[in-house]
């Protein structure tokens, strides 16, 4: 595993652009920060002509080193941070945005129903129809500073994926700069596989079995580009599908005095689905301790009560509906479920509408705190990086799955912070390492778990991607035919390996 200990002192690229939130460390690069779309396109075309590699960077909140350059240029997209236009469609509205527009800005602009558009071409009647009721973008990944380009490139998903799926379901199309320097519009239904072949917008043919890439027989080019970690080209704009916002949002947080009870409660909710449930998440005791310790420094957490004394795990639910009574009856069922597993409903939080945000702040504090821990260890001299699971394991109950993880961690004398989504056991087991031996054992364990997840039909590298950090795990965990299929796609779309070199594949 490559992870040089310390950032480059190269003045051309500040250290903060040589790493992401995984703490994977880049080596060197020249930082380019184009100010607008024209400058970005010119830079990309010139770099392609000169054979200079480019690594694209959004907000650098990724968790697998995908935006970290190992050579060539780091192209930061953060100045391309504006909405472009709004269109009314039969399904709702489509908002076209620049790739560096971030989730926080999107949320703010949607809530005030006002956009600072680049294009003045938006029709007055479109805007007035848009303002007639609230809209939202359903994917809700936890890190609000993340850019839309980064979210699309990693196929990010939030807790709300339980109901809404990943960002892929909420992107109608995108503009894409390809290896021939041309920018093309990619919309669903225009380019798709037929008998293992797809005619690409540039005219060349991609010949690969889509099932080897985990895609359906008739998958679309959009399915291939979303989640491609910048390996095939540059996303220059995205069309987001906006949906009518639910009138009511409720969050419930149940604190339990043992992991077993909390897992059993999540299993009850999975077995008897609580409509209109949007997310069902789990936080273990170490996660709750992380939240408590961050309260000393994070002002947002101070506004929220601490987890109750004796809490050993928590189950977090979010409901969306236009009919509040529907949520009320789901909440009553949830409280009954809590009693059924021996929990105390008085040790729970019910947060309605704007208050529901508090649950998200608590949930977000856990990965945030883990990042801070990595910095503390790095400051002591060990070049630690994030070692965390990111796959689904459909089949076993959450209870069984957690028991297996605990057994395996104990056998390896390792500790972890476990949190994540209950559906399909999409848990992030963050193994805590601070020396070479622990890192080695943690990576072996991760490879073993990935193998087991693959055997049981799990989706690997589900939310965060492979990037550079998990490249070796990817090569170990996936079948050779799968790795070869990804290589074929890379060679067809980026024959000179100039887009995000060394992501996912070593060459
Ligand atoms: C506290 C915390 C919570 C998080 N919660 C979640 C969560 O709930 N769900 C989740 O899925 N992830 C989560 N993440 C991970 C991270 O936020 C996501 O991976 C996010 O998608 C990264 O966006 P970014 O703008 O930071 O992208 P970056 O990290 O800058 O880049 C990510 C990848 O996208 C590529 N890329 C970026 N822009 C473009 C472009 N325009 N064209 C081509 N390629 C591009 C980069 O090269 C890189 O490969 C979390 C991270 C943190 C630190």
Task: Give a description of the structure.
The structure is a single chain. A hairpin with a 5-residue loop joins strand 9 (197-199) and strand 10 (205-207). Strands 4, 5, 6, 7, 8 and 11 form a six-stranded antiparallel β-sheet that branches. Strands 15-12-14-13-16-17 form a six-stranded antiparallel β-sheet, sandwiched between helices. It folds into four domains: 15-76; 83-244, 2-Layer Sandwich (Uridine Diphospho-n-acetylenolpyruvylglucosamine Reductase, domain 3); 248-358, Alpha-Beta Plaits, CATH 3.30.70; 379-479, Alpha-Beta Plaits, CATH 3.30.70. The model has no long low-confidence stretch (mean pLDDT 95). Helix content is 33%, strand content 20%. It is of the alpha+beta class and 507 residues long. The site of flavin-adenine dinucleotide has 41 residues, from strand 2, helix 4, strand 11 and helix 11. The site of flavin-adenine dinucleotide (FAD) has 41 residues, from strand 2, helix 4, strand 11 and helix 11.
Query: How many separate domains?
Result: 4
* Molecular shape: globular
Rg over alpha carbons? 23 Å
Number of β-strand runs: 17
Which structural class do you get from the secondary structure elements?
A: alpha+beta
Bound compounds: flavin-adenine dinucleotide
The CATH class of the largest domain is identified as: Alpha Beta
Summarize the structure.
The protein has helices at residues 37-50, 103-112, 124-130, 148-154, 161-164, 221-225, 259-271, 285-294, 299-302, 324-340, 357-379, 398-411, 436-455, 471-477, 480-493; strands at 30-32, 54-57, 73-76, 83-89, 92-97, 135-136, 171-177, 183-187, 197-199, 205-207, 234-244, 248-256, 277-284, 313-321, 348-352, 415-421, 426-432. It is α+β, with helices and mostly antiparallel strands.
């Amino acid at each position: 595993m490559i992870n040089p200990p310390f950032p480059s002192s190269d003045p051309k690229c500040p250290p903060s652009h040589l790493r992401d939130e995984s703490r994977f460390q880049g080596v060197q690069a020249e930082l380019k920060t184009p100010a607008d779309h024209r400058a970005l396109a010119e830079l990309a075309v010139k770099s392609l002509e000169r054979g200079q590699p480019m690594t694209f960077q959004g907000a650098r909140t990724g968790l697998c080193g995908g935006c970290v350059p190992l050579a060539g240029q780091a192209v930061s997209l953060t100045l391309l941070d504006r909405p472009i236009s709004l269109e009314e469609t039969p399904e709702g509205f489509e908002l076209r945005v620049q790739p560096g527009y971030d989730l926080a800005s999107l949320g703010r602009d949607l809530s005030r129903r006002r956009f600072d558009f680049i294009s003045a071409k938006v029709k007055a009647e479109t805007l007035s129809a848009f303002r007639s009721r609230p809209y939202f973008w359903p994917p809700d990944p936890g890190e609000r500073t993340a850019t839309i380009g980064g979210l699309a490139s990693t196929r990010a998903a939030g807790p709300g994926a339980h109901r809404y799926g990943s960002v892929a379901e909420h992107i109608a199309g995108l503009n894409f700069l390809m290896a021939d320097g041309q920018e093309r519009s990619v919309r669903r239904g225009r380019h798709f596989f037929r008998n293992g072949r797809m005619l690409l917008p540039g005219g060349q043919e991609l010949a690969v079995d889509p099932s080897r890439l985990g895609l359906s027989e008739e998958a679309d080019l959009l399915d291939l580009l979303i989640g491609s970690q910048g390996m095939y080209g540059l996303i220059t704009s995205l069309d987001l599908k906006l949906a009518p916002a639910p009138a009511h949002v409720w969050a419930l947080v149940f604190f339990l005095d043992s992991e077993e009870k909390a897992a059993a409660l999540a299993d009850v909710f999975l077995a008897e689905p609580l409509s209109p449930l949007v997310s069902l998440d789990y936080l273990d005791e170490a996660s709750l301790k992380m939240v408590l310790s961050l309260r000393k420094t994070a002002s947002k957490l101070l506004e929220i009560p601490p987890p109750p004394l004796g809490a050993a795990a928590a189950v977090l639910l979010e409901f969306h509906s236009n009919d509040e009574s529907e949520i009320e009856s789901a909440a009553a069922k949830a409280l009954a479920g809590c009693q059924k597993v021996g929990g105390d409903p008085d040790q729970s939080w019910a947060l309605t509408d704007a208050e529901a945000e508090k649950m998200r702040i608590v949930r977000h504090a856990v990965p945030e705190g883990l990042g801070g821990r990595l910095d503390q260890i790095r400051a002591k001299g060990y070049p630690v990086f994030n070692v965390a699971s990111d796959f689904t394991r459909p089949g076993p109950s959450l209870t069984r799955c957690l028991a297996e993880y605990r057994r395996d961690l104990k056998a390896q004398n390792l500790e972890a912070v476990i949190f994540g989504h209950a559906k399909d056991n999409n848990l992030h087991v963050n193994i805590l390492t601070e020396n070479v031996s622990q890192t080695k054992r943690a990576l072996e364990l991760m490879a073993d778990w990935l193998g087991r997840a693959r055997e049981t039909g799990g989706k690997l590298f589900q939310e965060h991607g492979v990037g550079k950090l998990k490249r070796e795990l990817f090569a170990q965990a996936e079948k050779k035919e799968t790795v070869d299929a990804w290589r074929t796609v890379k060679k067809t779309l980026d024959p000179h390996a100039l887009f995000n070199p060394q992501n996912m594949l070593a060459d």
